[in-house]
Design goal:
two-stranded antiparallel sheet, globular, 2 strands, 7 helices, mainly alpha
Length: 164
């Protein structure tokens, strides 16, 4: 691929990512959330009671960023901080009842943004896009590409044991 074509491709990738973030941010703002807060909420929905450090690592952000966002979400009534039972210096973050109720609005916002972004792409094109983006992520992170959704499901399914 020519240098100009690669530059144009990267420009499109940046533009698409920015537009997707902007569309999601607008939907989240309608529910009282700012960009990035949704990721903390969804991470706690999957595994409640994480430490700020664990959340920062999981989301790939610095601990001071997480702490600031957690404090804002706590002030909004979505999260609660509790001291660890084993180490009072360590805090664990939990969704409040209000926070749990807000998860549906976040998930709905994400789904609407996904639907808008993938409009006009059939299943085969979506799968190809997923694989290409996974390869780009792997190239940039130095890791291995993530399996496609259907491959991930196959990996996650337990293999039936056979008796000899």
């Amino acid at each position: 691929m020519a240098k100009a074509d690669r530059a144009a491709t990267m420009s499109r990738l940046h533009s698409a990512a920015r537009l997707a973030r902007t569309a999601l941010a607008a939907r989240l703002l309608a529910h009282g959330f700012y960009a990035g807060q949704d990721q903390i909420m969804l991470a706690l929905d999957r595994e409640d009671g994480q430490t700020p450090g664990a959340l920062a690592e999981r989301l790939g952000v610095r601990p001071p960023t997480i702490t600031k966002t957690i404090n804002r979400l706590q002030a909004q009534g979505f999260l609660d901080k509790r001291a660890s039972n084993s180490d009072a210096r360590q805090a664990h973050i939990f969704l409040t009842d209000v926070g749990r109720e807000a998860i549906q609005a976040i998930e709905k916002s994400v789904k609407k943004t996904e639907k808008q972004a993938l409009k006009g792409l059939d299943k085969k094109e979506q799968k190809a896009l997923f694989k290409l983006l996974a390869r780009i992520e792997a190239n940039l992170s130095g890791g291995e590409p993530a399996p496609a959704e259907d491959e991930a499901e196959e990996i996650a399914e337990p293999v039936a044991e056979t008796s000899a």
